[in-house]
Specification:
457 residues, alpha/beta, eight-stranded parallel barrel, binds beta-D-fucopyranose
Length: 457
């Protein structure tokens, strides 16, 4: 393999620019990497069903094998350790823990995560556990999934079992990953499992997910000494297509559902009145005590930052009367997502200005490009490396401006099953040859590693 050269770094950046106790991680999720879909008592999740349905995943693939992390986790944790990381974010596959509504917990499933956590601790990696990263057991979807309030109780039972089992070793807990995606991609635009298309359904799902989050907080604290509990939200700066009053007003409406719909209730303000008015009868049914539950105080907020959105006034669009546009001439990843490190600075400042969040962590940030494997087997993903450097520099600026940002998790350690895009999108710092399962650290991964080992760039 070529020795990576970092002479051409676009800017100077060192780990020493951040505090000694800064959390440096990578982020992963169960369905995207584990594979072993039918092993050791795992039952299908909504993603097994969805990805097996023709036309749902662009390359017709599923997560049945993925990165085979279920068998190769030691190698993967070795890699994370060798990079100089001090934290590792992973998620638990609920269908490995329970195989039915009244079932006993599956000892083999718990044992897998127990070994995984021990493996992290042995390698100096602080475990950050996400309890729900979209792989709902199919047997629960068969009873209505998150639309059914009973799923809240099922989730709390699952959380209780997992936190009792791992709580002696895992302090950092994330209740849900990106509830916007769970609700809206899953039930409004149908791009994700379970693939439904109904706004009132999506809003009801969203509400139940948020209630389950809030009610899980006290439970986790009861089971885990000194627990640090948070949620990971996908948040976006929203910009106007023009300076017109109409487009500026569209920004407010769009932001209402994209960002404030989550942040306002988490910090005790209820759902934004403006959005409730826009959705009218499609608003979720809320029971007594729900909003108080959602507002359970948190120890941190996880921010998944990928890109800003630009919107214009669009009176014909129900319910927000806004439309996302993609202005020409902006730098974009292969996915079409705008590359905007400054957007991260802006977003973090806005969150801190508007909400009493306490510590913030970037729980995901990363990019996908068309990786080329060179004749010598190396992957010179200079664009991904630069994306990483520029976002770390932006984070440094956000901290210098007073931001209470305590950690960064790059998405992702490995190329993996990228949901509706299947294996067409590579987000890894490590290249996966899916035919052989060989792992090769990309140039971006070498850069992150050199940075974490204190290289003087
Ligand atoms: C986020 C998801 C994560 C991954 C990245 C690219 O929305 O949380 O699983 O798919 O996007």
């Amino acid at each position: 393999m070529k020795t990576p050269i970092f002479k051409d770094l676009p800017m100077t950046l060192r780990r020493a620019d951040f505090s000694d106790d800064f959390v440096w991680g990578v982020s992963t999720s169960s369905y995207q990497i584990e594979g072993a879909a039918t092993l050791d008592g795992r039952v299908p999740s909504i993603w097994d069903t969805f990805s097996a349905t023709a036309g749902k995943v662009r390359d017709g693939s599923t997560g049945a094998v993925a990165c085979d992390h279920y068998h190769r986790w030691e190698q993967d944790l070795d890699l994370a350790q060798s990079m100089g990381l001090n934290a590792y974010r992973f998620s638990i596959a609920w269908p490995r823990i329970f195989n039915g509504v009244d079932a006993e917990p599956n000892a083999k499933g718990l044992e897998f995560y127990s070994k995984l956590v021990d493996g992290m601790l042995a390698r100096g990696l602080q475990p950050w556990c996400t309890l729900y990263h979209w792989d709902l057991p199919q047997y629960l979807q068969d009873q209505g999934g998150w639309e059914n309030r009973a799923t809240i109780s099922a989730y709390l039972h699952y959380v209780d079992v997992v936190t009792r089992h791992l709580g002696d070793r895992v302090r950092h807990w994330i209740t849900h990953n990106e509830p916007w995606c769970t609700a809206m991609h899953g039930n409004w635009d149908g791009m994700h499992a379970p693939g439904k298309r109904s706004l009132p359904l999506a809003l009801q799902v969203c509400h139940h997910v948020m209630v389950s989050h809030g009610r899980a907080v006290a439970l986790i604290r009861a089971n885990v000494a000194d627990a640090q509990v948070g949620i990971a939200l996908s948040l976006h700066p929203i910009h106007a297509a023009s300076a017109s009053a109409e487009d500026q007003a569209a920004v407010q409406r769009h932001d209402g559902l994209r960002n404030r719909w989550f942040l306002d209730p988490l910090y005790g303000r209820g759902y934004p009145a403006q959005v409730l008015e826009l959705v009218g009868e499609d608003a979720p049914r809320i029971e007594a005590g729900d909003m108080e539950a959602i507002a359970a105080p948190l120890d941190f907020l996880g921010v998944n930052y990928y890109f800003p959105e630009v919107v214009r006034d669009a009176p014909e669009h129900y319910p927000l009367r806004s439309a996302i546009i993609h202005p020409e001439g902006r730098e974009r990843t292969a996915f079409g997502w705008e590359v905007a490190p400054q957007g991260m600075v802006e977003l973090l400042a806005r969150i801190a200005r508007d909400y009493p969040t306490g510590p913030l962590y970037i729980t995901e940030n990363g990019s996908t490009y068309e990786d080329q494997v060179s004749a010598d087997g190396s992957i010179d993903d200079v664009q991904r490396r630069d994306y990483l450097i520029r976002h770390l520099a932006a984070m440094r600026d956000a901290i210098a401006a007073g931001g209470n940002i305590r950690g960064y998790f790059a998405w992702s350690l490995l190329d993996n099953f990228e949901w509706a895009e299947g294996y067409l999108r590579r987000f890894g710092l490590t290249y996966i040859d899916y035919a052989t399962q060989e792992r090769t650290l990309k140039h971006s991964g070498h850069w992150y590693s050199a940075f974490l080992h204190g290289a003087q760039n």
